[in-house]
Amino acid sequence: MRDFGTGFGYLVQGQKWVGRHGRWLGFGLLPGLVTLVLYVGALTGLGYGADDLTAWATPFADDWSSPWLGVFRGTLTVLVFAFGLFLAVVTFTAVTLLVGQPFYESLSEQVDRTEGGEVPESGLPLWRELWISARDSLRVLLRVACYGILLFACGFIPVVGQTVVPAIGFCVSGFFLAEELTAVALQRRRVELKERLGLLRGRRMLTLGFGVPLTLAFLVPFVAVFLMPGAVAGATLLARDLRGENEPDTAEPATREPATPAPVQAQAQARS
To answer: What pTM did the predictor assign?
Structure first.
């Protein structure tokens, strides 16, 4: 559980970083606001139409007696909306990062700069970076959709579907949310999607410690917009940890002699 706490710590540190650099927080709100408006409209439409969609998809239940018809379709409607919310939470980050790609990349570079060491740059033109981000986001979305369909089916299992499945769903969302956010820093380091997923799986609890609390926070309306800049900053710190860049270089030459204070040097020169 130590890694879980460390991952959560990076999330907190990222929010503190943008708090100290208010200019980055201000510029980071616009992409999130644009994306939020689109998603609120889509989820509102799904909320109003989920019951009709359920009725259309289950014509075989039209002749069921009460209360079984209501229970069955009511449960299915809730699962449909939950599945839509699950996809919204995971894809919100990808769409927001795509909309605000130039800004978030600059923010990530600034975090690297303030942390010391090298500031990696991809060296690719903007259109190429956007293409890579969109392509990788689509690949991640396909993976999420597969997990979502499986979890949706497991949701019909009594008791397990109402307890274990939602918990697993939050873990899956948190993992892929962390992947999308760390991709900003790792793509600048020329780390491909397959290798990124390998790094995150290798430190699974660290990844979940960062991603799961953020997933839960993103469920609160409007919170995602304000947390996005800090989430990118924290994900950059997480990416540095995954790559071993946060470890200080404490090695010193074995034959290093202590420096002679300046006043002592001056007295020695006077005597000579």
So the answer is: 0.73
